[in-house]
């Protein structure tokens, strides 16, 4: 131990040679490095198969299915490193917690704290969706669910179904499906649910650990994620008309529940799923936005949303004064049909309309609204009194001896299809119509063709002319002055419009022979794109099974059948607050799954459709 360390010595020349050799080696290494391409980068080694396996749960504490849970930390450990992907959009806790969980990653473990005040004797389910993925390839853990109970057993009732668009029958993805223990009306607009699930890409949902009992069921495609139906203009709602129960098994004890420590959700139920049809409320939170009197005869009210049957009006103090209502979009106008009353500058209107209360319910109310007509000053622009500048011809004195222009529209400006209507619109409500001043002329021989006129109660300034036409190609609609008069004595200007009849040989005829269909049934030929837009429509006539669509252009179409419950000739959405479901819709598909009809020009097609065999 006390010996001297050996000393290694070398001649002076040998040391110099060694240093020179080291210098040469360093210089060579630097030269080689400098000569390498500067864009070199680190790449993943090639040759191995891509990792397609999702992480597996190896341990969780407390164990999955624990009972008598008092709160605290939950740790779920996987067989590899994981990360979180959009956890707030994917994780569903049912029943909902007052404060959302905030999961964190620690190595291979997922950690959450349940500090919220948990309800006693309640089974909780945390479904993770696609929120947990592996670190390298992003493979999500499928069907990950953690279940615990604050009581002695795990509830095991299940409920499954599908949420879809009521009209298009397309699945509604990421919709919240909500259960309430109560049977009260409009619960989705009043409070958060007792239990909640979320639909997947196919619109499917499932509750797996419900208690026994009846529930009120609704679904909501939200705009703000607060589990409340509070923005009807932007949110899609669906609801089940009757209370519903889950399919129940025997309640799971602590021992049997903890045996399911894989945290995988149970297999799907084989029972027939429930179908919920989602729709946008026909009117949302309704309130009066603006009031206008742009011309003397018109009292206009603009609403945020409009229920067509909810607005009426009378003149305060003059209940006998006749008003004619006109509805267009979210605007209701009342046209004064008494020239003496129209000449009064300031009028008080007793307006009765629906309004949404703080709970989202619709209630009727009556307001007294004052409207003042202010004539435009010559040479002045802009507005007066906060109202738009009235048109120059809004003054009775100025317009009494001036004509007004009628506007003509029909389905296709390029060609007119027999059976369609020629629609005339007037700037005011016509008070008299002289049919001798209206003619549909066949330009081939200058003969006049018969026609009939249809008036629309909800659109008093509009009327339709339905002519009976021969096979000739060219016609002309002629409307001479004196055909229409309005309240102030004005008459229409001359209108002449040439009309080209569609060529039947370039179109086809499609006949749909119905069986077991509702009496009020609309048959629609629709486009084959995702929007499924209506291209042609015909209604089933009373007592008739065959619906014929003429002048159909060549192409490929789907077939949609609408049960027109209210007989208004169009599909109508539902009303959540009145508990009215949307009108039923079915799509044609034959026994082989063929759901398209291809047609060619100058052909006639006949197709039998059994309504009872079409999917609801």
3D architecture notes:
This protein has 616 residues and is mainly β. Helices cover 7% and strands 37% of the residues. It is built from five helices and 42 strands. Strands 10, 11, 12, 13, 14, 15, 16 and 17 form an eight-stranded mixed beta sheet that branches. The longest helix has 24 residues, at 12-35. The radius of gyration is 37 Å and the shape is globular. The relative contact order is 0.08. The model is unreliable at 1-45, 253-262, 265-271 and 380-401 (pLDDT under 50).
Quick description:
7% of the residues lie in helices and 37% in strands. The chain is mostly beta strands and 616 residues long.
| N-to-C span | 98 Å
- Rg, alpha carbons: 37 Å
Structural class: mainly beta
Q: In DSSP terms, counting alpha (H) and pi (I) runs of 4 or more, how many helices?
A: 5
Task: Report on the biggest sheet.
Answer: 8 strands, mixed
Total count of strands = 42
Q: Quaternary state, please?
A: single chain
Shape: globular
- Look at the structure and give the mean pLDDT: 84
Outline the low-pLDDT stretches: 1-45, 253-262, 265-271, 380-401
Relative strand content: 35-45%
Share of helix, binned: under 10%
């Amino acid at each position: 131990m006390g010996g001297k360390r050996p000393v290694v010595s070398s001649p002076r020349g040998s040391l110099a040679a060694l240093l020179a050799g080291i210098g040469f080696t360093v210089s060579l290494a630097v030269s080689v490095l400098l000569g390498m391409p500067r864009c070199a980068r680190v790449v993943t080694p090639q040759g191995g198969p891509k990792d397609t396996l999702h992480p597996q749960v190896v341990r969780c504490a407390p164990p999955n299915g624990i009972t008598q849970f008092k709160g605290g930390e939950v740790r779920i450990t996987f067989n590899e490193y994981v990360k979180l992907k959009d956890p707030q959009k994917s994780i569903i806790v049912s029943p909902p917690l007052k404060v959302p969980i905030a999961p964190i990653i620690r190595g291979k473990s997922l950690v959450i704290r349940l500090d919220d005040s948990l309800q006693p004797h309640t089974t909780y389910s945390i479904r993770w969706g696609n929120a947990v993925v592996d670190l390298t390839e992003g493979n999500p853990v499928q069907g990950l669910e953690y279940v615990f109970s604050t009581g002695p057993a795990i509830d095991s009732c299940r409920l499954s179904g599908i949420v879809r668009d009521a009209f298009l029958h397309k699945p509604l993805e990421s919709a919240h499906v909500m259960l309430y223990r109560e049977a009260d009306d409009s619960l989705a607009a009043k409070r958060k649910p007792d239990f909640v699930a979320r639909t997947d890409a196919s619109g499917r949902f499932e509750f797996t650990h419900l208690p026994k009992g009846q529930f009120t069921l609704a679904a909501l495609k939200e705009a703000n994620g607060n589990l409340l139906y509070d923005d009807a203009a932007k949110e899609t709602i669906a609801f089940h008309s009757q209370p519903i129960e889950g399919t129940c098994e025997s309640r799971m004890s602590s021992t049997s529940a903890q045996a399911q420590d894989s945290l995988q959700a149970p297999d799907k139920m084989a029972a027939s799923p429930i179908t919920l049809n989602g729709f946008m409320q026909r009117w949302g939170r309704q309130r009066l936005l603006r009031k206008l009197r742009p011309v003397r005869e018109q009292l206009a009210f603009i609403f945020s949303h409009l229920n067509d049957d909810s607005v009426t009006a009378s003149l305060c103090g003059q209940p006998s004064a006749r008003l004619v209502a006109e509805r267009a979009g979210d605007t209701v106008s009342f046209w004064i049909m008494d020239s003496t009353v129209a000449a009064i500058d300031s009028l008080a209107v007793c307006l009765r309309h629906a309004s949404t209360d703080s709970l989202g319910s619709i209630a009727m109310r009556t307001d007294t609204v004052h409207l003042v007509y202010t004539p435009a000053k010559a040479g002045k622009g802009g507005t007066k009194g906060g109202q738009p500048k009235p048109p120059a011809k809004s003054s009775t004195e100025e317009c009494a001896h001036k004509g007004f222009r009628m506007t003509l529209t029909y389905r296709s400006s390029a060609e007119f299809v027999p059976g369609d209507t020629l629609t005339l619109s007037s700037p005011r409500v016509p008070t008299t119509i002289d049919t001798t001043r209206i003619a549909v002329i066949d330009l081939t021989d200058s003969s006049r063709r018969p026609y009939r006129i249809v008036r629309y109660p909800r659109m008093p300034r509009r009327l339709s002319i339905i002519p009976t036409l021969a096979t000739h190609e060219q016609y002309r609609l002629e409307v001479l002055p004196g055909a229409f008069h309005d309240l102030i004595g004005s008459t229409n200007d001359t209108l002449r419009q040439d009309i080209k009849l569609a060529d039947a040989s370039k179109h086809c005829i499609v006949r749909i022979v119905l069986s077991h269909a509702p009496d009020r049934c609309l048959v629609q030929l629709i486009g084959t794109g995702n929007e499924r837009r209506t291209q042609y429509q015909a209604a089933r006539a009373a007592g008739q099974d065959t619906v014929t669509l003429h002048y159909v252009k060549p192409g490929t179409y789907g077939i949609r059948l609408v049960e027109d419950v209210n007989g208004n000739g169009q599909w109508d959405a539902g009303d959540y607050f009145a508990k009215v479901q949307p009108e039923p819709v079915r799509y044609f598909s034959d026994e082989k799954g063929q759901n398209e009809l291809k047609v060619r020009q100058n052909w006639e097609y006949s197709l039998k459709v059994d309504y009872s065999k079409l999917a609801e």
